[in-house]
Amino acid sequence: MFKKLGFRAIVGLSSLVLLLAACANETNETKPEVSPDLEKATETVNAKTPNVIKQHADLNEKPIPLEMERDGSDVYVKMTAQISDIEIDEGNVYKAWTFNGQAPGPLVVVNEGDTIHFTLENHDPAIPHSMDFHAVHTAPSKNFTDVAPNEEGTFSYQASNPGVFMYHCGTDPVLSHIANGMHGVIIVKPADGYPTDQEVDKEYVVIQNEWYKYNDLDDMTNGVPSHVVFSTKALHQGQPNTNGTVGAVIHSPLEAKEGDKVRIYVNNVGPNEVSSFHVIGTMFDDVYIDGNPANHYKGMQTIMLPASGGAVVEFTLKEAGDYKFVTHQFNHATKGAAGLIKVTK
Ligand SMILES: [Cu+2]
């Protein structure tokens, strides 16, 4: 997908990196391709923040709320690309590349059949960003294109399929943009609802994501995540809205009453790992894979969420107590991917 000249530059750059690496430690490890723009913008500002982009070094942009307005079935959504500090673990502040200062970004909820008129304001002074909604059919070359620093772009498309979809920045190198924090969830509510709508007492949104060494494309490509985490986004007023940080959904637990049927809209935004989503002490009575009412499964213990995959899961909490949910890939649960549902009488 690289333009011809860009590709040559990258090949040249990669060869140089390879040569230097070979000289330095006599290994032949393949280095990921870094776009020349990103390579130029990135430098070690100090030992504490390796790989920080020079213009990001002193930048910590205050989160700007999502703007959303509806006119019939036309929905006007405005988001920002911005650089904001997020403490992903105690004492570990990540200068995240974000949508609206959150990682994952703000929850977007629309109805099946809506036309989305999406505006991205790029508040990042250094590099371009973009938006790829998995909820729409459109030509990426036309509607998922880059918005330059300090510019804005508007794109329109229809959300014609119901589901729990990922969105992410699609600017090259995509892995850097997603792993640095530019991901989120858009729910497209089915026109005719889910067959179990009447049974559900509480509903929440849960998202899984990974973090790697700061803006380190080599680690993102060849390494393992340092943190795998859950976040929750407020679907209804008064619900917690967190970033993807270690313990976020334990410190801000989900709540239910004994006997409640709970629905979770869940998505794994990755970027790289699969999620094996499981609630300890119950099982999923009803599951809609990717959140489409047509994909209805019953009685599942664990659901597999591929990177970007979503689901609606519904389960009954028959006894009061604390229920943890995890990815059953326990190496990832150990790195932070655990959340809590507090069930009271
Ligand atoms: Cu981006």
TrEMBL record:
Domain of life: Bacteria
Position of the signal peptide: 1-24
InterPro entries attached to this UniProt entry: Cu-oxidase-like_N, Cu-oxidase_C, Cu-oxidase_fam, Cupredoxin
Record domain Plastocyanin-like: where: 84-191, 236-343
Coiled-coil ranges per UniProt: none
Pfam families per record: Cu-oxidase_2 (PF07731), Cu-oxidase_3 (PF07732)
Cross-referenced PANTHER family: FI03373P-RELATED (PTHR11709:SF394), MULTI-COPPER OXIDASE (PTHR11709)
Protein name as it appears in the record: Copper-containing nitrite reductase
